[in-house]
Amino acid sequence: MGLIIYLDGKFVPEEEAVVSVFDHGLLYGDGVFEGIRAYHNRVFKLHDHLVRLYESARTIGLEISIGMEEMQEVVLETLRRNNLRDAYIRLVVTRGKGDLGLDPRKCPKPTVFCIAASIQLYPDELYERGLEMVTVATRRNIPEACNPRVKSLNYLNNIYAKIEANLAGVPEAIMLNQEGYVAEATGDNIFLVKNDKLITPPIHVGLLEGITRNTVMDLARAKGIEVVEKVFTRHDVYIADECFLTGTAAELIPCVKVDGRTIGDGKPGEVFRGLLKDFRELTKIDGPVIFE
Ligand code: PMP
């Protein structure tokens, strides 16, 4: 059975959910989006995702035609129409239809759509075994040009890095910033554990302020783990006790090899396992309910 999609005020079958070839989201990557998860009949951290969406829109000078409360209802209603209690949700706002020039003033109305689909989780095996990464040559966008904090539709920077990872035959890549400090993976934030401390790069390094990242830092502090946001290099990754990635789709995923170096004892660590357990508990109670 096909999905029901929210598109510009209507719920339509997926065959009818089409946007114009003149949409600047398509022509120029001009727009913003969120990837969100629903678990156990609740939309996890929905408020945080909506805040980030509207903040990204503000920076690119895009006025979203509907308010945040209405947008929350769009997400919940999309899930209801598809009878989904556990799902991956893609919420997108583009600059809308314009002419072939890039001037956003020629785009009178943003395009808004929301897709909710059953999720294909990563295989359990990957969480138990851990994944391998390489550092790639493509540097993360500099904040002064295309700020990684803005979750825009322009993902070419990350896609270049993903292609490098693909060519190296590994599932993920570490991206450095211009100075050579570790920034993040192609679609996930990065954490290290060293001497029982949890370490992650600060926002100013140039990375997306991940909602899972913030959640994991809160969970760690709640269990008495010291959390440090500081810049670090590949050397710090190689000598870490543990390394893992965080993101809405991946949740927390362990990384056991980087650039051919085994991290820690080459197995997902204890801190990682504890935090993943706490994270999964939190998904049972956080966020607005879908079906009352
Ligand atoms: N960094 C990048 C580049 C991403 O695309 C994502 C996924 N949205 C993340 C980090 C993780 O963010 P979140 O935890 O909010 O999904």
Structural features, described:
- The chain is of the alpha+beta class.
- The chain folds into 2 domains: 4-117, 2-Layer Sandwich (D-amino Acid Aminotransferase, Chain A, domain 1), CATH 3.30.470.10; 124-282, D-amino Acid Aminotransferase, subunit A, domain 2 (D-amino Acid Aminotransferase, Chain A, domain 2, Alpha-Beta Barrel).
- It contains 8 helices and 15 strands.
- It has helices at 24-28, 46-59, 68-81, 124-129, 156-168, 211-222, 234-238, 270-282; strands spanning 4-7, 10-13, 31-39, 42-43, 87-94, 111-117, 131-135, 172-176, 182-184, 189-194, 197-200, 227-229, 242-247, 251-258, 261-262.
- The strands form 2 sheets. Strands 7, 8, 9, 10, 11, 12, 13, 14 and 15 form a 9-stranded mixed sheet that branches.
- The protein is globular, with a radius of gyration of 19 Å.
- The two termini are 24 Å apart.
- The relative contact order is 0.15.
- The model has no long low-confidence stretch (mean pLDDT 97).
- 4'-deoxy-4'-aminopyridoxal-5'-phosphate (PMP) binds at residues 35, 158, 184, 187-189, 208, 210-213, 246-248.
- 4'-deoxy-4'-aminopyridoxal-5'-phosphate binds next to helix 6 and strand 13.
- InterPro entries: Aminotrans_IV, Aminotrans_IV_CS, Aminotransferase-like, B_amino_transI, BCAT-like_C, BCAT-like_N, Class-IV_PLP-Dep_Aminotrnsfr.
- It is an enzyme of class 2 (transferase).
